[in-house]
Amino acid sequence: MPHRIAVLALDGLLPFELGIPQRIFGLSRGSEPRDKGRRLYEVVTCSVRPPGPVRTDADFTISVERGPETLATADTVVIPSSYELGPVYTEGRLTDELAAAFAHIRPGTRMVSICTGSYVLAAAGYLDGRPATTHWSSADHFQQLFPEVRVDPDVLFIDDGDVLTSAGVAAGIDLCLHIVRRDHGTAVANDVARRAVVPPHRDGGQAQYIQRPVPETQFATTTSARTWALGRLERPILLRDMAQQESMSVRTFTRRFREEVGVSPVQWLTRQRVERARQLLESTDLSIDQVARDAGFGTPTSLRQHLQAALGVSPTVYRRTFRAGRA
């Protein structure tokens, strides 16, 4: 059976964020011969009240056909943001309606928040003593209201196993793609990203607030250098080589790169190589030595160190995990 995802629609919700789980998980299809084209997730939307209208922050309401009892059937619960959280936002406590709805959730259910949906998870106690994030503009207030939560205001999302939180709006797309990748591998996640016409991978540790996300008119960017680097990840790539692609000094290129991408060129390059290694480990029978060379790490030791730092597992364990999941 498909993994069941329940999206909790709260009054004051943002329609864009409510639609993210349906769009990303709804596009996910099996890629292996035994499950080619099979839906991997079933996405349902529910309210904290009996079926009926739910207000949005736009000039329309939506009609939700399922009530809170739906949460009892969920393998994953997603809570998008809302501008009408009431005492959840002002006092850090659940309303009676929310508390009754959360009582339906089974132990072990994966919990996910998008943007200020993290306030609901925190008020329900899911984030006590755990790392979490929210929209950067709310991070200080969030930390003051929930001092027991280890708030990181600078990242796109945080995966803490059975509880995952993301920053605002587009970071919800990044988190949902990350979940697809974690559940079913890079090939499936990349296919979803292609069909949704979004970047296939932005690392959770990337900065939320980027100084220059959209280049000014007539302003030189680092796009060509990134495209050039992605086409030769298996070869040595020096910072000065990337800077030369844009006819910039290393200093100017490094500053411009961080302004546009949110991380340094070296950090970005390492993340792209980790992603390439993941793809090769999932989809080929290449030896670990060859994967290390093709991903640009050079040696199995270097590959092992970087994969361990990024994912907490060795290349062999990573490959075995996805091969076992597809057996």
List keywords for this structure.
six-stranded mixed β-sheet; 14 helices; 43% helix
Written description of the protein model:
The protein is an alpha/beta fold and 327 residues long. It is 43% helix and 13% strand. The strands form three sheets. A six-stranded mixed sheet has the order 2-1-5-6-10-9, with helices on both faces. Strands 3-4 form a two-stranded antiparallel ribbon. Strands 7-8 form a two-stranded parallel ribbon. Helix 9 packs across helix 10. The longest helix is centred in the last third of the chain and has 19 residues. The radius of gyration is 21 Å and the shape is globular. The relative contact order is 0.09. The mean pLDDT is 91.
Give, in spatial order, the strands making up the sheet with the most strands.
2-1-5-6-10-9
| Structural class label | alpha/beta
* Percentage of residues in helical conformation: 40-55%
Which residues form runs of ≥5 with pLDDT under 50? none
Number of helices: 14
Radius of gyration: 21 Å
Q: Determine the N-to-C terminus distance.
A: 16 Å
Could you give the topology of this structure?
Layout: E1 3-9, H1 15-26, E2 41-47, E3 52-55, E4 61-64, E5 76-79, H2 87-90, H3 96-102, E6 110-113, H4 117-123, E7 131-132, H5 139-145, E8 150-151, E9 157-159, E10 163-166, H6 170-184, H7 186-196, H8 223-230, H9 239-245, H10 250-261, H11 265-283, H12 288-294, H13 300-311, H14 315-325
Parallel strand pairs: 1-2, 1-5, 5-6, 6-10, 7-8
Antiparallel strand pairs: 3-4, 9-10
